[in-house]
Specification:
Chain lengths: ~260, ~260
């Protein structure tokens, strides 16, 4: 069976204004199967977000190829819904429900139908009753829920999430992780989830790809997480996975810190 | 929420009222005790003169002439400036092409253009409206273009990932995201229009608040000069408040906060 997404020897080099090349990722290869929750974990500055931007189609790889369902990715498409880290992707002049139905409206869906669907997804992310508020009136966690609902209502083949909870406080983050796990169990949408938090990756992922420190980053190793059902941070199994990931990433974090110093 | 109780009314407008009262009080004191000259009439005298000028219809005639010119030029200048600014902010080649115009012309003050305007369009309405358009258009263009370049890239990316076309992104994302900047530009342009219209009317006009000032100087009608000055101040204040009120009422959701 062919994977849903495959990165084949992908390279992305950025050129600075001074003309200096920075190879963010090089010889990057990875595969994501349909229905899995793939966490891409790595130290800061390792090119995780670059990988997401390439798959989203916001940027084109310098070389190599990214295939989705056997076809090369050539630009953004509603096959791949995106949840961004900050709230600057939300439309401040639209209410919560209008934000959620944006994609449906662009597609020309009738008002009553798209409203009904948007409300269903707002309920899925626990935002019922907040639909007429503007993003500025909502908390950070609620704004991320709007983003998730806005992406899911479009029924994309997969969901790309770029550290969506990194800017939230610890309590909200834990809550959002639990809710996302629940949403994923309901929808079974394939997810690529970018994070630098081992705990988050082990909590959510069915597989965890650990990246090397940048530049010229690539996947160092992939860990299958056989934790179905309850994932509590005090479980022995959870801790074993945590340790395994930690040992794989430790050197990379050290390298990444040494480079920034 | 509009104020309901007297106390609310006081906390909303009390400071304002006090400020205005103190302004007129200081003026009165300065005029009566400090200067005590017919060249600096106290507010009461100016007010009485204003009442007379309103009764005879002279003040309203001048006021209306100035307002008409400002409105015509301001609306035309904004209608031209917004699309040009949007195009400059959205397309690099357009910006490169038009920047020499905006960057060159905006440093020639509209007051300096009065001479040319009068030579080209005479002393009638056309020259005044031309000058107000001139003074409005560059501020609106610059603010609109700045608004377009200030759009968070993620807003555009999100729309792309939601399946929006380029055209849809322009009308449903770029345009609404720029509205706060456009409105700010228009508000600044409105303030500039006042400066320009008075200067233009000072030099060449048959009526208007600037003409009133000029006549006052010619015939030593000091009270008339002060009536015109106070009218300008009040008119500017009221128009700016109305503009702000309009923004909050009709475009509150386009607030720059988000």
């Amino acid at each position: 069976m062919t994977p849903l997404v495959s990165f084949d020897d992908v390279q992305k080099t950025y050129r600075s204004l001074q003309g200096v090349d920075y190879p963010a990722v090089e010889h990057f290869s990875a595969e994501i199967e349909a229905g899995e929750f793939f966490c891409l974990l790595g130290p800061s500055g390792c090119g995780k977000t670059t990988v997401l931007k390439l798959l989203a189609g916001f940027e084109a790889p310098t070389s190599g190829q990214i295939l989705m369902q056997g076809r090369p990715v050539t630009g953004a498409s509603r096959d791949r819904g995106v949840v961004f880290q900050g709230d600057d992707s939300l439309y401040g002049w639209l209410t919560a429900v209008e934000n959620v139905e944006f994609g449906l409206r662009m597609r020309g869906m009738a008002r009553s139908e798209r409203r009904e669907r948007a409300m269903r997804y707002l309920q899925l992310v626990g935002l019922s009753g907040q639909e007429r508020k503007y993003p500025a009136e909502l908390s950070g966690g609620m704004k991320q829920r709007i983003q998730i609902a806005r992406a899911l209502v479009n029924e994309p083949a997969m969901l790309l999430m770029d550290e969506p909870f990194a800017a939230l406080d610890a309590q909200t983050r834990a809550l959002m992780q639990a809710e996302l796990a629940g949403i994923w169990k309901t929808t079974r949408t394939t997810v690529l989830f970018i994070t630098h938090d081992i705990d988050e990756a082990v909590t959510l992922g069915t597989r965890i790809g650990v990246m090397r420190a940048g530049p010229r980053s690539q996947v160092k190793g992939v860990i299958d997480v056989a934790l179905d059902g309850a994932r509590t941070r005090t479980d022995d199994v959870f801790l074993r996975y945590y340790k395994q990931v930690y040992e794989m990433i430790r050197d990379e974090v050290a390298k990444s810190i040494a480079r920034t110093d | 929420m509009p104020p309901r109780t007297l106390q609310q009314l006081w906390s909303w407008y009390g400071g304002y009222a006090l400020g205005f009262v103190s302004l007129f009080l200081l003026w009165h004191l300065a005029s009566v005790y400090l200067v005590s000259s017919v060249l600096f009439p106290p507010p009461a005298v100016v007010f009485r003169k204003a009442v007379t000028l309103v009764r005879t219809g002279v003040l309203l005639e001048h006021l209306w002439a100035s307002i008409q010119r400002i409105l015509a030029g301001f609306i035309a200048g904004s209608l031209l400036g917004v699309p040009i600014g949007l195009a400059m902010g959205s397309f690099r080649p357009v910006r490169k092409l038009l920047e020499p115009y905006t960057e060159f012309l905006r440093f020639i003050p509209s007051v300096a253009m009065i001479t040319v305007a009068v030579i080209w369009f005479g002393i009638g309405e056309a020259s005044k409206i031309f000058l107000i358009i001139y003074t409005t258009i560059f501020i609106v263009i610059l603010n609109t273009a700045a608004g377009v370049s200030a759009i968070a890239p993620n807003k555009i990316r999100a729309a792309q990932a939601l399946g929006a076309t380029r055209r849809q992104i322009f009308f449903h994302v770029a345009l609404p995201a720029t509205v706060p900047y456009i409105l700010t530009g228009m508000r600044l342009a409105m303030a500039n229009s006042f400066t320009t219209i008075v200067a233009a009317e000072l030099i060449a006009a048959n009526e208007g608040l600037g003409k009133m000032l000029w006549d006052g100087r010619m015939f030593m009608l000091v009270d008339d000069i002060f009536v015109s000055l106070v009218t300008l101040g009040l008119l500017g204040f009221v128009v700016d408040r109305m503009f702000r009120w309009g923004i909050y009422t009709f475009a509150g959701k386009y607030s720059p906060a988000t």
